[in-house]
């Protein structure tokens, strides 16, 4: 606005985000006024006092700082943000050590490459063995990730991801799934003050082959593949740099789910509906991994004994603020069966449409949600529907806040011991092929008899 | 008993494949105002949590202490986290109808 339109501007931030301002190329050249932190969720009187009170950085009253920025000369600056990669370059030396395993564990933690749990130290031998899990060249680029808070671009190769897979404790055959997760370039730790959680869903024959639990206690801490593959995503996020306190990691409460990111497979065998990856353009025999992210997750605490499943879901989803209609419902196969056989929903899509039409809340309650106002308020102002219309409604008028059924995803997981479900506001970040990362099959590795070679002889007890 | 055997570990981050993005920024400041008296100042909230209420408080402060300053509260259009093409219309309005802008605040 200053350069193009010639309007003097006074930018304001809370002191908590001074680091972000300082790391940003534009922020570096602008003069800011800072207020105490936070401004969200505090009384109007307090905000008024902030304006009369001192800027915690300059020590001058905030109002004087604003006046000065608008009325006193600001010097033109041509600034180049210098690459600040010396620390990273040091980290990037391929070999670290020699040192004891205990010291290397401590070093990896200190460098921010772990979540705090012990890792398997990635020795050359272990990484070489892990790389047998794919036929893709170790130097091939898997992901390029931009960290907007630190203005860095980070690249990861197959070798980098294989190293992290070792650290997580992965078996060689988990590597293609972990590479597919990394290929989506999405961190499990999102740079936000809010408590984002993440989820990994695996579809296709590989899930059973490598032992990803989709049935009984699928989300419990009982199964190696679920634990390790989910953990690997967070270790990847650490190594990309998303765990730097108050540089890229801002979540006030954090989210415990990020330890293994709810890694599961869909229970395709027991589901009466189309698998999730098939809904997203893959064939049933393809292997694919999908990632999700959101804030809110509510378990149904009991079975729908006195109300229908749909009524139970409506009650929970009335309480979860809807941003762009994003919802992911994880349901036991018993729930899916009930919905199909007894309530007539032939497909997941049919049920999503039904939910979209039946979940209603008052417009006033919808707009009062902080995330809704923050992310959809500007959409309403620039005429995007239905938000524009909803912004003009009376507070008590009912709206179907999950208005877009395509954003209501359904996943079937569970062991059929009770007809339960999990209601989330998770957004589908994407689905990636696992198959492109698989090793070429050899004669001892025949999946579903497709290779045309005779099966190995099994030996049996006498 | 802890092992004293020394081993090498492989780094999980790339060598020359890890880059920092370098951006040159040219900042050409606008001329400052000699005074705010009688001027129109746009109070633009970013849309981030709390910013709308902060600008309300700032508007009240101007009304209490600088009643000759006309304030206009607006929400920054477009993405709450960055400047995008949706902002242009508002920036143009401010340049045509306003004399200065105060932009903020997050958190």
Structural class of chain B: alpha/beta
Mean pLDDT of chain A: 91
The percentage helix of chain B is 10-25%
**Strand line-up in the sheet with most strands of chain A:** 8-7-9-16
| Uncertain regions spanning at least 5 consecutive residues of chain B | none
Which bin fits the share of residues in helices of chain A? 25-40%
Structural class of chain A: alpha/beta
The CA-CA distance between the termini of chain A, in Å, is: 84 Å
Task: Kindly provide the radius of gyration of chain B, computed on alpha-carbon positions and rounded to a whole number of angstroms.
Answer: 23 Å
DSSP helix count of chain A? 19
Number of discrete helical segments of chain B: 2
Structure explained in plain terms:
The complex is a heterodimer of chains A (462) and B (107). Chain A has 462 residues and is α/β, with parallel strands linked by helices. Among the domains of chain A are: 3-71, no CATH class; 83-291 and 434-462, no CATH class. Helix content of chain A is 34%, strand content 16%. Chain A has 19 helices and 16 strands. Chain A has a four-stranded mixed sheet with strand order 8-7-9-16. In chain A, strands 10-15-11-14 form a four-stranded mixed sheet. In chain A, strands 1-2 form a two-stranded parallel ribbon. In chain A, strand 5 (141-147) and strand 6 form a beta hairpin. The longest helix of chain A is centred in the middle third of the chain and has 17 residues, at 224-240. Chain A starts with a helix and ends in a 29-residue tail after the last strand. The model of chain A is unreliable at 78-86, 443-447 and 449-458 (pLDDT under 50). Chain B is elongated and about 75 Å long. Chain B is an alpha/beta fold and 107 residues long. Chain B has two helices and six strands; from the N terminus they run ββββαβαβ. Chain B has a three-stranded parallel sheet with strand order 5-4-6, sandwiched between helices. The N and C termini of chain B lie far apart (49 Å). Chains A and B meet through helix 1, strand 1, helix 3, helix 4 and helix 5 of A and strand 1, strand 2, strand 3, helix 1 and helix 2 of B.
């Amino acid at each position: 606005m200053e350069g193009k339109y010639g309007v003097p501007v006074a930018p304001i931030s809370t002191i908590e985000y001074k680091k972000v301002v300082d790391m940003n190329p534009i922020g570096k050249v602008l003069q800011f006024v800072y207020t105490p932190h936070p401004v969200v969720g505090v009384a109007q009187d307090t905000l008024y006092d902030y304006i009369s009170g001192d800027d915690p950085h300059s020590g001058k009253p905030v109002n004087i700082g604003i006046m000065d920025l608008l009325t006193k000369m600001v010097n033109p600056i041509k600034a180049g943000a210098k690459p600040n990669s010396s620390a990273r370059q040091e980290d990037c030396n391929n070999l670290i050590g020699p040192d004891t395993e205990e010291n290397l564990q401590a070093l990896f933690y200190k460098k921010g490459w772990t979540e705090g749990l012990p890792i398997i130290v990635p020795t050359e031998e272990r990484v070489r063995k892990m790389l047998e899990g794919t036929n893709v060249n170790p130097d091939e680029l898997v992901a390029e990730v931009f960290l907007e808070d630190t203005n860095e671009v980070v690249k990861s190769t197959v070798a980098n991801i294989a190293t992290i897979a070792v650290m997580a404790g992965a078996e060689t055959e988990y590597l293609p799934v972990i590479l597919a997760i990394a290929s989506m370039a999405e961190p499990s730790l999102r740079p936000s003050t809010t408590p984002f959680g993440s989820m990994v869903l695996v579809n296709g024959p590989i899930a059973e082959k490598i032992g990803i639990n989709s049935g009984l206690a699928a989300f419990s801490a009982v199964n190696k593949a679920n634990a390790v593959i989910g953990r690997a995503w967070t270790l990847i996020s650490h190594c990309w740099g998303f765990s730097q306190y108050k540089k890229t990691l801002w979540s006030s409460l954090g989210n415990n789910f990020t330890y293994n990111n709810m890694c599961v497979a869909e229970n395709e065998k027991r589901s009466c509906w189309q698998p999730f990856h098939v809904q997203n353009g893959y064939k049933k025999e393809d292997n694919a991994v999908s990632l999700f992210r959101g804030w809110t997750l509510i378990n149904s605490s009991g079975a729908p004994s006195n109300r229908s499943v749909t009524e139970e879901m409506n009650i929970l989803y009335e309480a979860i603020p809807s941003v762009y209609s994003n919802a992911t419902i994880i349901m036991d196969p018993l729930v899916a069966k009930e919905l199909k056989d007894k309530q007539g929903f032939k497909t997941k899509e049919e049920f999503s449409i039904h939910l979209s039409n039946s979940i209603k809340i008052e417009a006033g309650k919808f707009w009062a949600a902080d995330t809704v106002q923050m992310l959809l308020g500007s959409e309403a102002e620039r005429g995007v529907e239905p938000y524009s219309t909803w912004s003009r409604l009376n507070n008590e008028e009912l709206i179907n806040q999950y208005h877009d059924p395509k954003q209501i995803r359904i996943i079937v997981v569970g062991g059929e011991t009770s007809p339960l479900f999990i209601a989330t506001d998770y957004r589908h970040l994407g689905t990636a092929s696992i198959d492109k990362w698989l090793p070429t099959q050899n004669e001892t590795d025949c999946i579903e008899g497709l290779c045309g070679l005779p099966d190995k002889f099994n030996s049996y007890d006498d | 008993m802890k092992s004293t055997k020394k081993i090498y570990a492989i780094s999980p981050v790339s060598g020359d494949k890890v880059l920092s993005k370098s951006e040159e920024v040219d900042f050409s400041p606008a001329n400052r105002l000699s005074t705010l008296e009688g001027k129109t100042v746009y109070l633009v909230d970013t849309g981030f949590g709390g910013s709308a209420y902060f600008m309300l408080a700032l508007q009240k402060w101007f009304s209490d202490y600088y009643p000759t300053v006309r304030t206009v509260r607006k929400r920054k259009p477009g993405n709450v986290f960055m400047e995008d093409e949706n902002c242009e219309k508002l920036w143009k309005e401010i340049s045509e109808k306003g004399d200065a802008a105060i932009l903020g605040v997050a958190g």
